[in-house]
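In this section we walk through a basic example: taking a raw amino acid sequence and producing a predicted 3D structure, encoded as discrete structure tokens. The instruction is simple. Fold the sequence below.
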Amino acid sequence: MITGETEAIIQRQLGEEDYDEFFGSRKKRKARRAKRAAKKVERRSAPKRIERKAKRKVFFSKLGQAYQGLGGATALGAAIDTITKPTTVSKYPLTNNEVSEDYSISVGASNDDPLPDKKQFPIKYIIVGSVVFIGIIGVIVYANKKKKLRMQQYR
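The resulting token sequence is shown next.
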């Protein structure tokens, strides 16, 4: 209703012919859209853009050929596995693949010395702290969304 009243007031003050130009006519809208479409076509047919697109296509085709030449995803996965999960290689392999009895191999502390018990932080404090932390983050996100919504209403 307010829009209709405002429209009537503007129409009375400006007149019929100026009123249409004030709010934007369909002819002008079509002209603006055609102008934007022409600029878009011009941008897409620019020589620099076409050249960059061709270079990108050549680069990715070469990359794909190199990828297939290496053996594809299976070979790359196997290479990554060899790096991340190396196998132990002994410098002097034994003929019977057993460790001789005159020496022993151990890593870390022996079983005779048990590790002292560490005082652990109670799990209930960790749970309560994480719930409080997530709650604070939720309140901050909610406040930011509410603030953005208010800012959009004023525009």
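Looking at the output, two observations stand out. Residues 1-44 form one domain. The two ends are 21 Å apart (CA to CA). In the next section we compare this with other chains.
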